Amino acid sequence: MRAYNSLLKWAFLISAFLFNNNYFHYYRKGFSYNKINYPILNITLDPGHTNETNFAKFPARQGRKDFDTDNDGWIEEYELNSIVADSLETRLKNDPLINYVRTKIDGKYTKAFLECLIKNDSLITEMATRERLPNEPRAYLPVHLGKKVYNIGVFAENNSDLLLSLHFNKASWSNNYKGFHVIISPNNEKYKESLELAKIISRTFREKGYKISECIPTDPLTETPDSLLKEGIVIRNLAALGDPGHKLTKPVVLIECGWLKDYINASDKEIKELSDAVYYSIQEYVIRNNFDGNLYK
Ligand SMILES: [Zn+2]
Predict the structure, then answer these.
(1) What is the CATH classification number for the domain harbouring 219?
(2) How far is the CA of 167 from the centre of ligand 1 (A)?
(3) Could you tell me what percentage of the chain is helix, strand and coil, using 3-state DSSP and rounding each to the nearest 5?
(4) Cα(169) to centroid of ligand 1, in Å?
């Protein structure tokens, strides 16, 4: 298996080199191929929300009909999150340096995710029912749904090296914000690595022409320095990422890819470009964390 993986890895890198440097950032100036080694990065890919916990939605007649995957007359955030995750998955599937698991497929929790929830029920119940701090926003979901959100972090810790959660913001027709931002949690033992990845995502997105969001919600418990907000990065306590009741031990980032309104008519090409921006960011993170830190010199 290891020999097979190794062969796959080299075939991947050689084809990246020969055919499409633009699409494979592993090929970069100064990249030292003989330093490529395992471990592979294991990602938990979380397409945000389900139809139980969805907030942002627009009438399907205003957007692409096929984005209304559950045919309920609305294009919901969870549907678009899933579409972007599917597009990203086509990349991850062909990348021998990255393994991934998903929390949801087609907007539904996977079997493994639900088994994790049952197995860790008492821990997760404690997280979801603890008393909130005086300034802390109230839990916005009933406990049985909140537990599933807490399980995203628990599942990621049990199955991977990194949690990547994909979302879109909601903007009404009158409230015309634009742009992306990235969320990390202060309650994360790997805060430094999470911040590093958030910075890579922010830079990659900007290089690809995406603008930083004009509106970034902040957290009453934890102040985000202006220097980070200017990069489109905010520090927030969120159930899935780590909050005052539990600290996650693996790096965690949540990407608000843009505002839902701007994507309900997105072309396949736009979806692919967006998921590619996420993919390139992960590639760079893999390189930085697994290989020589001087690759870019
Ligand atoms: Zn969301």
Answers:
(1) 3.40.630.40
(2) 4
(3) 40, 20, 40
(4) 6
For residue 39, cis peptide bond before it (omega within 30 degrees of 0): yes
Report CA(248)–ligand 1 centroid distance (Å): 20
Residue 165, pLDDT above cutoff 70: yes
Asked whether residue 101 is assigned to any structural domain, the reply reads yes
Q: Domain containing 151: what range?
A: 39-290
- Alpha helix stretches (DSSP H) within 233-267: none
Asked whether residue 4 is assigned to any structural domain, the reply reads: no
pTM assigned to the model: 0.89
Ion ligand 1: residues, CB within 5 A, are 48, 167
The contacts of residue 238 (CB under 8 Å, 6+ apart) are: 183, 185, 254
**pLDDT digits 0-9 by tens, 8-63:** 666 766 666 555 444 455 655 455 555 565 557 999 999 999 999 988 999 999 99
Alpha helices (H) along 160-253: 191-207, 226-229
Q: How many structural domains does the chain have?
A: 1
Q: Are strands 74-76 and 98-102 parallel, antiparallel or unpaired?
A: unpaired
Q: Is residue 96 part of a domain?
A: yes
Residue 24 resides in a domain: no
